[in-house]
């Protein structure tokens, strides 16, 4: 059995009614306990890890294998008989979009530390880090009544840069999750269809942006292609929400398992070592297939576990961004829960 994590600011706020005042309280606690801690750990201007869209020509240099061929200066190349590329100074101002999967499976996890709690804390802190330097954040919310009825996303929050906008987003995330149906028949065919969220992202995110797809990726098939299309147009990070119990069951005797989305229930005997081995094997196979699909889509991957520390997770994200800046044309990277922390700049 894993150790029970200590209560977090997110857990404290989730235990209260989702009033606007609670969103403000949660954000203040996160600013004090997480953002101030990050400011002490991250030396230098970490905003340079977030690339904007405004470009000014700074220099010319010889082409290198990792360079974007679209930046080749063909006039200079013709005169010097050697490929040369334009080097740009990038505007730091950027737009970030959060594509948020709030389907019932996101509620899985220990009280106060469920995947939805981790999602809320991550989005709140990263949104505030961005907006306090003048960047804009927007969000698409999926998983409510409209999504379950097959009508696409529940809400589109256009990009804004104010603290009030972050509070509005946080208030939407603190709203109580819709309860799962009492029986499988009550919600037939209502499995999460993550491709609807990604297709909405393709339709709404026009200008090149940083796009964070935050989900546990427990979904019906078909999300891989729209994710790859997003990654071709934007700087995409797939933020995976995971819980250790999804990978390995403890030996606790008879256990009633319930599908959060369909409501289906199944009683299993976790004393059975063979059953636990089969469960772990199938979970490992699904994990491998999921990581392969994310890599093929061309999206960087950051894994957030329900027993994770939010500061450590954000440091892993900064490390992921540093590697992205150094190797802009390299293969997609993954920052898992056991990745080494980045060296301080």
Structure notes:
It is built from 10 helices and 11 strands. Mean pLDDT is 78; it is low at 1-19, 43-49, 182-189 and 337-345. With 345 residues, it is α/β, with parallel strands linked by helices. The strands form 3 sheets. The chain has a 7-stranded mixed β-sheet, sandwiched between helices. Strands 1-2 form a two-stranded antiparallel ribbon. Helix 2 (20-41) packs across helix 4 (115-131). It folds into 2 domains: 9-48 and 91-246 and 288-335, 3-Layer(aba) Sandwich (Rossmann fold), CATH 3.40.50; 55-90, no CATH class. It is globular.
Largest sheet, strands/sense/barrel: 7 strands, mixed
| Count of spatially separate domains | 2
Q: Please write the CATH class name of the largest domain.
A: Alpha Beta
Structural class: alpha/beta
Radius of gyration: 22 Å
Strand content: 15-25%
Could you give me the name of the CATH homologous superfamily of the largest domain?
A: von Willebrand factor, type A domain
Q: Spans of 5+ residues with little confidence (pLDDT < 50)?
A: 1-19, 43-49, 182-189, 337-345
What order do the SSEs take from the amino end to the carboxyl end, as H and E? HHEHEEHEHEHHEHEEEHEHE
- Looking at the overall shape, the CATH architecture of the largest domain is 3-Layer(aba) Sandwich
Task: Give the overall pLDDT as a whole number.
Answer: 78
Terminal CA distance reads 37 Å
Total strands: 11
Strands of the biggest beta sheet: in what spatial order? 5-4-3-6-7-10-11
